[in-house]
């Protein structure tokens, strides 16, 4: 993917994010970087993978007010934008598939390499040190305390390692899971939970 094309899409995506948060623009940029790292190693089509990563959470800010799942609305927004930009129809289909299937807790399973990589990268950003930081941001956003964050770690994050599709993601997940587990154990010791 050309630098100018990347910057143009990123500038458009940025217009949807007025504030930071657990699913803010910084999350999108980390997922894009992880997607690129894994995608290069796995031989992915970067003209599918990188736009999918940039668009994957574009509708997160709209989900709460509209009630439309962000993966569905995000795929619609990406398709509309990419058609107007003259993107190849086959690639648009692959990009929207990756966006629709990136959310591990809902929806259909990713079927393409690019969709699997995006799903892996999104899950990886919920693990390790960044995942811990995002968990507490999320808890604050939802009015939860430490107990809510601990619950989220146990109910979701500690299960992510076993859900990776690609070899590269499995390697990264192993390290991030170990850190997450050490943190969860220490937090339980300190809080007596």
TrEMBL record:
<dbReference type="InterPro" id="IPR006674">
    <property type="entry name" value="HD_domain"/>
</dbReference>
<dbReference type="InterPro" id="IPR003607">
    <property type="entry name" value="HD/PDEase_dom"/>
</dbReference>
<feature type="domain" description="HD">
    <location>
        <begin position="24"/>
        <end position="127"/>
    </location>
</feature>
<dbReference type="InterPro" id="IPR006675">
    <property type="entry name" value="HDIG_dom"/>
</dbReference>
<dbReference type="Pfam" id="PF01966">
    <property type="entry name" value="HD"/>
</dbReference>
<protein>
    <submittedName>
        <fullName>HD domain-containing protein</fullName>
    </submittedName>
</protein>
